[in-house]
Amino acid sequence: MKKHLLLLTAIIMVGSITATLNAQSVKDSWYGIGVAEVPNETNNYLGELILNEKNGKVTGIFNYYFRDSLFTNKVEGKFDKVSNQLLLTKQNIIFHRSYDTKTGVDCPMYAQMTLRNSRVESVLKGMLYADNEHQFTCPVINFNFKRIKDIAPPPPTPKKQSYTILPKKNKEATVILPRPSSIAIKSDTAVVTKKAPAAIDPKQLLYSNRQKVYTQELDIESSSVRIELYDNGEIDYDSVSLYLNDKLVLGSTMLKHSAITITLPLSDSLEYNELSMFADNLGLIPPNTAALILYDGKIRHEIMMTSDLNRNATIKLRRKKKP
Description:
The chain is mainly β. It has three helices and 19 strands. Helices cover about 10% and strands about 50% of the residues.
């Protein structure tokens, strides 16, 4: 009897270990922020890992934003399901103190990360580190990646359809279903195609997760406004983006003493339009502070905008109703 119990216990343990190993995988899309391991460092890397894995071999793409530019690297490596260790071979990463992304120097770096799974989320936590020849000039960059599906909003719950049963004279019942919004017609020659799901924009997710801080509310007479954006003070390589009603209208742009100008149409259907400033990085002197000049026709408004990696500076623009 004892031998049977020991055998059954061993089978259960082996099955449990096998199921656990099979559940561990890095094959997915991951998103996170990397920070150089340097005191008072403010520059960061907005990173996206798209990984494929087969029999422990890993291939994929590493996309990352730095200042005002997007970089793409092909990656290779291996994943150990026993230790949950992900190792990626050498790739070039732009130096964390590069002022110009077009002429900035590269650091040859390797990746070492650990996969941690829980009921709430899955995390790839680790670092990019340089080889021996560059270890004193290229500091470690610490990364904390999360599965994109863990931070994306859940899909809406479909509504239940209702129906009405009407009695007929012959005591039979007729079921009246709601009219569908569209009808699919099958034929021998028709080819049915499905639209691919929209790709998740990591930057949009990051923007949505930051708190909006309302700095001012303005009454606007014109149907559109002209915006001028300047760096407020010393040029410290701040990079920002502008969102109107939560939609990107100005991509990553470095603030300078010369004006960044954009004209934006306003919506009449909304109670007010929201203009938000998103910090792509913190430059050399955090937080990101900009002088925003807004022209409502000939009326000029000057507003100070301050954003960081947790908050989006936002102003409300309310259209004046015509008498």
